[in-house]
Amino acid sequence: MFSSRFPRDFEPNRLTQSLEELRRAGTPILDLTASNPTQAGLQYPPEILRAFDDPRLLRYDPSPAGLLETRTAVSAYYHARGVEVDPGRVLLTASTSEAYAYLFKLLANPGDHVLVPRPSYPLFECLADMESIELRSYPLTYHGRWAIDVDALFAALSDRTRAIILVNPNNPTGSFLKRPELARLALLCAERGIALISDEVFSDYAFEADPERAGTVASLDHCLAFAMSGLSKIAGLPQMKLGWMVIAGPAAACAKAFERLEWIADTYLSVGTPVQHAAARLLTAGEYVQRQIRQRTAENLRFACEALTGSCANPLFVEGGWYLPLQVPRLRTEEQWTLDLLSRRHVLVQPGFFYDFESEAFLVISLLTEPAVFQEGLGHLARFLADASVE
Length: 391
Prior knowledge:
By secondary structure, the protein is of the alpha/beta class. The chain has 2 domains: 14-43 and 287-389, Aspartate Aminotransferase, domain 1, CATH 3.90.1150.10; 47-285, Aspartate Aminotransferase, domain 2 (3-Layer(aba) Sandwich), CATH 3.40.640.10. It contains 12 helices and 14 strands. The protein has helices at residues 14-24, 47-50, 68-79, 96-107, 123-130, 150-156, 179-192, 231-234, 251-268, 273-307, 334-345, 371-389, and strands at residues 30-31, 90-93, 113-118, 134-142, 146-148, 161-167, 195-199, 225-230, 243-248, 314-315, 323-327, 347-348, 350-351, 362-366. Strands 2-9-8-7-6-3-4-5 form an 8-stranded mixed sheet, sandwiched between helices. Strands 10-11-14-13 form a 4-stranded antiparallel sheet, covered by helices on one side. Strand 4 (134-142) and strand 5 (146-148) form a beta hairpin. Helix 4 (96-107) packs across helix 5 (123-130) and helix 10 (273-307) crosses helix 12 (371-389).
C-alpha cells in the first residue's frame, strides 16, 4: 500500500527508548544534546514580536520565489558580510530541509547520486530517500583538524553524480571549507557539469578568524552553486520557518535553475506571508540572539576543553558551529557509552554513529546547552569516563 521511501520500521532506537522511560519516571536528565535556541535560556528582544505588527500580514499575494522586500533583506544580510547578492538570485523556502528537497528535484532523477560529507548531518539520508535519489559519501579526515579528502571525493564520482553537498561549517565536526578545497571542487564541478550545494546555516558562528577559510559560494561564477541559510540558526528563530537559497554561477545556468526552482516553489507556496514581511526586522533583531549564541558556545567550548584535560575524552578541534565531538576509548560501543551514561549518570549525549563517523568511539555534545547544565553534565561525564577506564 505504501511507497518504499520510508524506514522499514518506526521503532525508536534504544537510546530514545531509555530516555523516554526515565522521563516517564520523572528522572531529571542532564541533556547535553540541546540544540533548540528557543529552549536554551537565551533572551529574545521584544522587537521580534513587534516585527509582526504590520497590516500587510492580512493580505495574501503569493510570489513563488518570495516577496521582493524579503529577498532584498536577504541580500542585505550578505552585503553586511562583504558579498554582493542580487535579490533576483534569491529564492525563499520554509527551511533548508525544504531547500534540499527543491534542489534534489531540480538536479537529480530517481537513482541519480549526490555526494555528502561523512561525518555529517543525519537528515540527508531521509531527504534523499524521499526524493528517490542515492547518497554517496566522501570522507572528512582528522589530523589535528578536519579536512576534506578531495582524492576520495573524486573517486566517489560517477556518471550519475549530479551534485556535491558542502556543509560550511560542518555539523558536527565544526570544520570550515578552505579556499584550496573550494577552488578544486568548483573547477571539478565546472568541468563535469555538477552542481555545488553549500549549507551555510552555521557560517556566522566561527570561534576564530582564519584567512584560509572559504566564504559563501554565493559569489562563485564558474560553476552552478547554491548557498543555503535561514533564520533558524543565524537568528536563533527556528519557529519562524524561513530559509533561502542564493543561486550562483554562469548567468545562463542561473537563469535556467531559477526558472525551474520558481516552478517547484509555485507548486507548494510554503513560505508564509507574515514571516516574509517581518524578515528584515527579524534579521536585525536576531543579531542580538546571535551574539548570545556566539558567547555561549565559545564559553562552553573553553569549559569543555579545560574540564576534560587529563581525562580519557579527547575534544576534537572545532572551528565553529554549535557542536563538539569527543573521542572516547573503545572500551564500549558508542551505543553502550550513551546508554550507560544515561542510565547511571542521567547524562544525555549523542553517539557518533548518528552522524556517520567512520570509526568508534565518538560522542557528540551541544555547545548551546545552558551553562549550568553543561558544566554539571561534563563533570558527570568526566567522572564516568574515569571510573570506566579502571573497571
